[in-house]
Design brief:
- Two copies of one chain form a homodimer.
- With 410 residues, chain A is of the alpha+beta class.
- The first copy, chain A, has four domains: 163 residues, MoaB/Mog-like domain (Molybdenum Cofactor Biosythetic Enzyme, Chain A, 3-Layer(aba) Sandwich), CATH 3.40.980; 41 residues, Alpha-Beta Complex (Molybdopterin biosynthesis moea protein, domain 2); 89 residues, Molybdopterin biosynthesis moea protein, domain 3 (Molybdopterin biosynthesis moeA protein, domain 3, Beta Complex); 78 residues, MoeA, C-terminal, domain IV (Beta-clip, Beta Barrel), CATH 2.40.340.10.
- The first copy, chain A, is built from nine helices and 28 strands.
- In chain A, strand 20 and strand 21 form a beta hairpin.
- In chain A, helix 1 packs across helix 7 and helix 4 packs parallel to helix 7.
- The radius of gyration of chain A is 32 Å and the shape is elongated.
- Chain A starts with a helix and ends with a helix.
- At the A-B interface, helix 3, strand 16, helix 4, helix 8 and helix 9 of A face helix 3, strand 16, helix 4, helix 8 and helix 9 of B.
Amino acid sequence: MLTVEEALAQILADVDPLAGQFTPLEESLGRVLAVDLSSDIDSPPHDKSMVDGYAVKIADVNQHPVSLPVNEEITAGQVPTRELTAGTSSRVMTGAPVPAGAEAVVMVEETELEETESGPLVRIPGQQISPGANILLQGTSIRRGDQVLTAGTRIRPLEIGLLAEIGQASICCIPVPRVAVLSTGNELVPASEVPAAGQIRNSNGPMLSAQARRCQAEVVSLGIGRDDQAELEELIQAGLDADILVLSGGVSAGVLDLVPAALAAQGVNEVFHKVELKPGKPLWYGRADHDGRRSHVFGLPGNPVSSLVCFELFVRPLVDRLAGRASIGMRCRQAQLQGHFRQRGNRPTFHPACYEGGKQGGTVEPVRWQGSADQRALTTANCLAYFSAGQQEFSPGTAVPVYLFEALDD
Amino acid sequence: MLTVEEALAQILADVDPLAGQFTPLEESLGRVLAVDLSSDIDSPPHDKSMVDGYAVKIADVNQHPVSLPVNEEITAGQVPTRELTAGTSSRVMTGAPVPAGAEAVVMVEETELEETESGPLVRIPGQQISPGANILLQGTSIRRGDQVLTAGTRIRPLEIGLLAEIGQASICCIPVPRVAVLSTGNELVPASEVPAAGQIRNSNGPMLSAQARRCQAEVVSLGIGRDDQAELEELIQAGLDADILVLSGGVSAGVLDLVPAALAAQGVNEVFHKVELKPGKPLWYGRADHDGRRSHVFGLPGNPVSSLVCFELFVRPLVDRLAGRASIGMRCRQAQLQGHFRQRGNRPTFHPACYEGGKQGGTVEPVRWQGSADQRALTTANCLAYFSAGQQEFSPGTAVPVYLFEALDD
């Protein structure tokens, strides 16, 4: 049987990020740039004033108080109409272009304005002002043609601002992977229905869809598939439109476990079935190459804990890879085990657990549950604690790796 | 002038989470429950088999090998039609209800099935099996009427699964706050346009919208408002439909800074103007109570660094509070300063910086930029480093608080 690492290596083998697509700026948040990007402008685009004040010649204002006539007032968005000559000033607002000939800007707070019959005069006390003071020269931060962002960059709000500045209203970035979710089983009814005798509500479908959303995937909900070969094949065919099809249920050994056959009939080739893992051993993974592209198919065991664990361990890293993200999968920490943990059987175990951080390193306490369908106990978990195979008893204080659900929190 | 803490206290004063609203299950991810929720079902809903196997009486299988006729086969979703009597067995699948009278389930792997003329017989080797083995009793994990989730719980994929199980297809949770974003200034053109002389592209609007999305707010983009009283008032009126209206630009001392007047005309009352903070001193905050509800209005300074900082310090905590989230604002860490930092002026400074984590605690290096409109330099930051007021020179190795942008990454 494959180990977790071997299984993950087979899933990610030959998988490249999806091909870049043009996306409106406001939808590109969280995606990854597919190309390098250059600026079509200088930034700032003109020699600009960094303050509200008066553009002047240095010689006019140094040392001695002076009163200067005001040529014009330049607000942001306007262009100067007159060159600044010796013995004059121009009023400029923050961000506005300074007039040609301006050598510095004196802050308005230091000045006094006086209206006279021959027009406004600004009184400036004598000062020590350096050439270029309060002026930011054109192109200081970006020169036209500069490469300002590189392929592979994750687009945060900060990058959104820069992309807007350099005129990228439509951006070539890696699209959001599409994940289709299909729950199988005759016993399932939707959350909106009251289950009849023998039935339960479909909780895996909504949970897996939410996990996929938390990987920033686009979710296609295929609902519930009955244990009927023709119906399953039709739903699987629809699911193969997505980059990833996640099925839950139907991959263990029950008589109605028709899923593997239905997948085969739809051209999905098994890559592996079963992983040395608890819970999640019956995990099935296959691929279908069709219409010039590839769909990845996961058959997850039907119980909620197995589904959750298999999604986080195997599906999330694949979504990350397809989306072009550099860091993939859950973040791992070491934590001190609280209480005893008895490892039963001989498979490494990822047990839902409660992690608490602390200055001296965190602690972790496995969740106690009533069977692997215990959704209620599951909601008390915020991580998976890892217990290696073969060892039978873990005593309090043992250092245990934990895989945080933080990506599920946001 | 108010300190950052005083300003934040005034913003959050008397602010309660928004009133709960019914939301479809699949849209409730990330929201906060507004009410306690009870289960309408037992879980499991019946005594169920935890394995594929045969339901039996203990006395029939203990100690000696036995062959038992198989009454029926019960798959998940079906109900048993016959009570289990001594000397018989029923085939049961994982998750299926066990028949009345069943005392344990023997795993299928341990058995052999034989078809005979009088029907199927299952051969079971003699074994030590306890009463109740492989059976999960009805209601073990949840009893009907149990309160299973409490008001204030953040809905993660794990809670989505539980909510589906207990039939909550529509959930009373705290709605997503609505944030309207309006950029002001005659110099601004949208990212899709080529700026003429004196113009720049609107980068703050898209950046602030993206920051709001990263707080899981619903964003209403109001575009660009010219420096014209009537136009501004109309846009502000539209923005007051939202829970929070964020304006950028128009709150410093320029002659065309009409924003405060336009806000007053629309019934927005100033709470404060100016905060002891660098960058971000001109921050304006007010409130409008109208139509039985309240809108919060922020006037952010127009340069990108100030906008970014003010949003993260003041708007994000308010969004978190309105959304009912327990932890609000950015996460703070201590880090060792790399290089010197010169604190100019006498306001505490939040400087965009680059944090690197490490086993021995992280390090932080302030971003070097060409003025506060340097979007390009800003994209190299992943945190704000805090430098207290009054001290002039911070030397390498000084412990500095950093506020992580991690919430912007996801």
